[in-house]
């Protein structure tokens, strides 16, 4: 492992550094790399999830500043990932329970064969230039995220496809001929990875001027001042923080551990909310037997917490 470390630059906002990363590359040795990467993560106290596939690496991890610097240096020491770019934010407590390195068919699952961002992709737009693009009346702006993500935040004027999973996005594109009514398509997602594939797919469909937000919403919220922002709401993140806002500060949302939906403070006061059991979004779709099962799990979580332990299913 290289010792040429670039230690994350700030301690403000929490003791833990959270690093979101992805890199598309031809990586046929991904299976054999798994054990080595997992060992380096554990040696440095890193927790989170990293996905490996023949098309590259993707994930979000957290740890001390030194630990994150070391694992990033190790990943970049692989020839395939020397150009990897990551995004940092802070967390007051460790936002993940354990470390997972998983092997996948795709590092972000779109389900369309032969979509290769290394061959064709949309034009990257820096956060400082994004407002001008999406304010242009000749631009159609599309949020490529899932419905539970868009529910708590979206760019002003953006189209929400209202999809449950990213696998649904290609069919949504195919079934919306009106997207051809304007010359420019601008797409965005949390950290940029879904747009690598969505813009590649749009180019394959014949769209000419296709753009995406470089670094995703995370980079925009980090770099664009709140007073200049066209972002409305909070950004869902896939860890225990649940959401973040401008300046990458932790948001006020909590998570329903029954359906994984982000909840506002008002929704937590609903009679349909019971911690770890139900919320207004899932109450009517669950049976009482489901809720009894969730209550048992929540009881185990509470007992583990009382013992000063973390329950694996929390």
Automatic annotation (TrEMBL):
Ranges where the Rhodanese domain occurs: 135-229
Function: Catalyzes oxygen-dependent 5-hydroxyuridine (ho5U) modification at position 34 in tRNAs.
MF terms (GO), sorted A to Z: oxidoreductase activity, acting on paired donors, with incorporation or reduction of molecular oxygen
Pfam families: Rhodanese, UPF0176_N
Root EC class: oxidoreductase
Family of this protein: Belongs to the TrhO family.
EC number annotated for this UniProt entry: 1.14.-.-
UniProt source species: Ciceribacter selenitireducens ATCC BAA-1503
Matches recorded under PROSITE patterns: RHODANESE_3 (PS50206)
GO biological process, one term: tRNA modification
Gene coding for it: trhO
UniProt keyword annotation of Oxidoreductase present: yes
Cited SMART domains: RHOD
The UniProt record lists the keyword Oxidoreductase: yes
Protein name: tRNA uridine(34) hydroxylase
